[in-house]
C-alpha cells in the first residue's frame, strides 16, 4: 500500500459522454492529422478515437507548442486524454482540450512494451492504465484494421497514398510554397525517382553522401502549409510523412521510348491526415528502418572514385541517337576490340577539351578533310588591307551586270573603295536582297556593309575580270557568317561566272566560283567514363550535336551562352562525377597511322544533345 495519495482517474467510455462534461478517456486512433500550424501561431491536431463501445469521438486539439499535442505515429496507436472537454459541433459530440489537458500515446500492437509517449516527464501510469491499454489492444486487434498505409519505398506503387518512414538527407526551399526533401529508407523504388533540379537552390545536406546513395534517395516535394514544418526539419532526423502521394510521370525519350519516373508529393492542406512528423531516434517505429539503413551502409561505404553502378540510375540528360538497333557496349569491351566498329555507349563526360569553347570551332574541308583555324579578325583585316592596296581597274566598273560606285578615303593615302551593286534583270534590287562586290574595302567596312546587304563578296581587279581574293579571305559574307573555301581543293573561276545566276546561297555561289567551301565544325575531345573504362572520343560536328550552328557561334553571344550551358550540364563544374548526367551516344572507331604507329581513335557520330523535359 502506498502512503502517497494517488489520484485515481475515472475514464468515461465513449458512449457515455455528455455535452459540457470534462472527462478522461482512452481510445484507439482511427484517424489523425499530425500537428500543423493553424491560423495564428497555435498548432492544431485532429484525432478521431474509438473504443470498445464502437463509438467514435473526434477531438480538435490546440496548443501553443508542437510538443503539447498527442504524439501519434499511426492509426492504431492508443491514446489517453485527461481533461478533455466535450461539446457539440454540427450536431455531434466533439472533444477539445480544456485547461490542464494532457495526453499519453502507446503503441497499439499486442505484445509491445507499455512505453508512453508524452512531452511531459511527469505523468501517472498505474496498473489500471496498463490494463486499459492491454484491453484496447486486444479489442483493436480484431476491430481496427492494421494500418496498411505504412510502407517501405520498395513497396511503393504509383497513384497511391502512403505513410513513409524515412530519414531526411537533404532539403531545399524551391519557392515560398514548395519545399524539396531528399529522403531514404534503405530500400529502392521499383521505378526511378524523379529528380528535382537543384540549380539555383540553396541546398542543405551532404550532397556527396546523397550522390553515393544514388537511387536509394527519393525526392519529395511538400507544399503550402507543410513548407513551414519542412523548413524546421533537421538533416539526419527521422520522419514519418503522412499521406504521401505517388505519381508516375512518363518522360518521353527516343532512347528508351518512354522513361517512367516516380514522383512524390505531399500536397497542401491537412485532409487525409497529410503532414510530417519527426520520430524520436529511440522510437520503436524506427527499428525496421534502422536495420535497412545499416545494411545499405555496408554496401555503399566503399569509397567510389569512379561511378557507382546502380540498377535504377536515371538519365537526367539524354542524347538522342539514330541506330537504335545497336546494343550498348561497356567501354572496357570497346577498348579491347579492333577498328573500325560502331558502338552505342552510356557514359558520363568526365572532361573535355578545349575548355574555352570558342576555340572548339574550326573549319573543315569536306573533300580533303583538312582542318584549319577560323581566321582571327586581325589576320583577316591584314588580308583585306593587302588587297586594298591594289589599283582599281576602271574598265571593270559599271558593266551591264552591276552598277559601280567609287570612293576615295581621306587621309589613308587616298585609298579607293569600289562597290559594285549586282543587278537583277537589269534592275538594282533592294539592299536587303542585293549582292555587292567590294574592292579595296577594309574589314570594318566589309562587316558594316554585310549587315545592310544580303551578301558581300570581296574582290579585286584582274586583267580581264573582277576576281576573288585568295582564299585566306572569305569568298562570301552573309550577315555575321564568313564563308571560306579550301585552298587545296578549290579551282577559282572569275566573278562573271556568278552573275546572272541570282542564287546567293553559299553552296551555289561556291560551286559557280569553283570553290570547295569549308564547313564550320565543333572539334572537341570528350573523355567518356562509364565506370568500366575511360575512352577519349572526338566530336566533329557542324550543328547536329549541340543544335547550335558552329558557323554562327563565334559571332553570337547568345549562342555562346547556350553552348556553355549545355557543356555545364554535361560536365557540371565543381561537383563529383557521380552527379553528372548519363549520356547515350554513338561512337565509331577508326585506325590512324601516326608515323609508324598504328592507333585506334574514336569519334562521336549521329548523336544529339537533348535537354530533358523535367
Ligand atoms: Zn580541301
Task: Compute the average pLDDT.
Answer: 84
What gap, in angstroms, lies between the N and C termini?
A: 70 Å
Percentage of residues in strands: 35-45%
Poorly predicted regions are 253-258, 298-317
Name the helicity range.
10-25%
Number of strands: 29
Strand order of the largest sheet: 1-2-3-5-4
Give descriptors for this structure:
614 residues; alpha+beta; five-stranded mixed barrel; five-stranded mixed β-barrel; 16% helix; elongated; binds zinc ion
Describe the model.
The structure is a single chain. With 614 residues, the protein is an alpha+beta fold. 16% of the residues lie in helices and 37% in strands. The chain has 10 helices and 29 strands. It has helices at residues 127-143, 207-213, 225-232, 287-300, 331-334, 377-388, 443-452, 506-512, 550-553, 557-570; strands spanning 22-37, 43-50, 56-63, 78-89, 92-106, 150-151, 161-175, 178-184, 204-205, 218-223, 238-253, 257-266, 275-279, 318-321, 341-353, 361-364, 371-373, 402-408, 416-422, 435-439, 455-461, 466-468, 476-478, 481-483, 519-529, 534-541, 583-594, 597-605, 607-610. It has a 5-stranded mixed beta barrel. Strands 7-8-10-12-11 form a 5-stranded mixed barrel. Strands 15-25-26-28-27 form a 5-stranded mixed β-barrel. A hairpin with a 4-residue loop joins strand 21 (455-461) and strand 22 (466-468). The longest helix has 17 residues, at 127-143. The protein is elongated, with a radius of gyration of 38 Å. The chain binds zinc ion.
Amino acid at each position: 500500500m502506498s502512503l502517497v495519495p494517488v489520484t485515481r482517474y475515472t475514464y468515461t467510455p465513449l458512449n457515455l459522454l455528455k455535452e459540457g462534461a470534462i472527462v478522461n478517456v482512452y481510445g484507439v486512433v482511427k484517424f489523425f492529422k499530425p500537428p500543423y500550424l493553424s491560423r495564428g501561431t497555435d498548432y492544431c491536431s485532429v484525432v478521431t478515437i474509438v473504443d470498445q463501445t464502437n463509438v467514435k469521438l473526434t477531438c480538435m486539439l490546440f496548443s501553443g507548442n508542437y510538443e503539447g499535442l498527442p504524439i501519434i505515429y499511426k492509426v492504431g496507436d492508443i491514446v489517453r486524454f485527461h481533461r478533455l472537454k466535450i461539446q457539440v459541433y454540427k450536431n455531434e459530440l466533439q472533444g477539445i482540450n480544456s485547461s490542464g489537458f494532457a495526453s499519453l500515446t502507446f503503441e497499439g500492437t499486442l505484445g509491445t512494451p507499455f512505453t508512453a509517449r508524452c512531452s511531459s516527464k511527469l505523468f501517472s501510469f498505474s496498473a489500471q492504465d496498463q490494463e486499459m491499454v492491454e484491453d484496447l489492444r486486444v479489442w483493436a486487434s480484431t476491430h481496427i484494421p492494421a494500418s496498411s498505409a505504412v510502407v517501405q519505398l520498395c513497396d511503393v506503387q504509383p497513384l497511391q497514398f502512403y505513410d513513409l518512414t524515412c530519414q531526411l538527407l537533404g532539403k531545399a526551399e524551391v519557392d515560398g510554397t514548395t519545399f524539396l526533401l531528399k529522403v531514404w529508407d534503405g530500400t529502392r523504388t521499383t521505378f526511378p525517382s524523379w529528380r528535382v533540379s537543384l540549380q539555383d537552390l540553396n541546398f542543405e545536406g551532404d550532397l556527396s553522401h546523397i550522390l553515393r546513395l544514388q537511387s536509394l534517395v527519393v525526392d519529395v516535394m511538400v507544399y503550402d502549409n507543410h513548407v513551414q514544418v519542412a523548413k524546421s526539419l533537421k538533416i539526419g532526423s527521422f520522419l514519418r510523412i503522412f499521406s504521401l502521394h505517388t505519381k508516375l510521370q512518363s518522360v518521353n525519350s527516343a532512347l528508351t521510348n518512354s522513361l517512367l519516373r516516380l514522383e512524390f508529393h505531399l500536397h497542401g492542406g491537412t485532409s487525409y491526415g497529410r503532414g510530417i512528423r519527426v520520430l524520436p531516434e529511440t522510437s520503436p517505429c524506427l527499428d525496421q528502418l534502422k536495420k535497412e539503413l545499416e545494411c545499405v551502409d555496408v554496401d555503399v561505404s566503399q569509397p567510389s572514385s569512379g561511378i557507382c553502378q546502380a540498377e535504377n540510375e536515371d538519365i537526367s540528360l539524354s542524347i538522342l541517337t539514330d541506330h537504335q538497333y545497336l546494343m550498348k557496349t561497356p567501354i572496357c569491351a570497346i577498348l579491347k576490340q579492333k577498328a573500325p566498329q560502331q558502338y552505342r555507349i552510356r557514359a558520363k563526360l568526365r572532361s573535355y577539351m578545349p575548355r574555352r569553347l570558342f576555340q572548339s570551332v574550326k573549319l573543315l574541308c569536306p573533300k580533303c578533310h583538312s582542318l584549319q583555324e577560323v581566321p582571327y579578325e586581325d589576320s583577316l583585316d591584314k588580308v583585306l588591307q593587302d588587297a586594298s592596296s591594289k589599283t582599281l581597274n576602271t574598265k571593270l566598273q559599271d558593266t551591264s551586270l552591276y552598277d559601280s560606285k567609287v570612293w576615295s578615303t581621306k587621309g589613308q593615302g587616298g585609298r579607293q573603295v569600289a562597290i559594285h551593286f549586282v543587278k537583277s534583270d537589269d534592275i538594282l534590287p533592294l539592299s536587303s536582297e542585293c549582292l555587292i562586290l567590294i574592292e579595296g574595302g577594309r574589314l570594318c567596312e566589309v562587316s558594316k556593309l554585310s549587315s545592310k546587304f544580303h551578301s558581300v563578296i570581296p574582290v579585286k581587279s584582274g586583267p580581264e575580270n573582277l576576281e576573288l581574293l585568295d582564299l585566306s579571305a572569305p569568298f562570301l559574307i552573309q550577315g555575321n557568317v564568313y564563308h571560306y573555301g579550301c585552298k587545296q581543293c578549290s579551282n577559282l573561276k572569275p566573278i562573271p561566272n556568278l552573275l546572272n545566276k541570282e542564287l546567293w546561297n553559299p553552296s551555289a555561289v561556291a560551286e559557280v566560283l569553283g570553290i570547295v567551301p569549308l564547313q564550320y565544325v565543333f572539334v572537341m575531345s570528350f573523355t567518356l567514363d562509364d565506370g568500366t573504362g575511360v575512352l577519349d572520343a572526338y566530336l566533329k560536328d557542324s550543328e547536329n550535336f549541340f543544335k547550335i550552328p558552329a558557323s554562327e557561334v563565334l559571332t553570337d553571344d547568345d549562342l555562346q551562352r547556350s553552348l556553355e550551358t549545355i557543356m555545364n550540364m554535361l560536365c557540371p563544374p565543381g561537383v563529383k562525377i557521380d552527379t553528372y548526367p548519363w549520356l547515350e551516344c554513338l561512337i565509331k572507331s577508326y585506325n590512324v597511322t601516326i608515323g609508324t604507329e598504328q592507333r585506334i581513335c574514336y569519334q562521336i557520330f549521329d548523336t544529339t544533345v537533348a535537354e530533358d523535359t523535367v
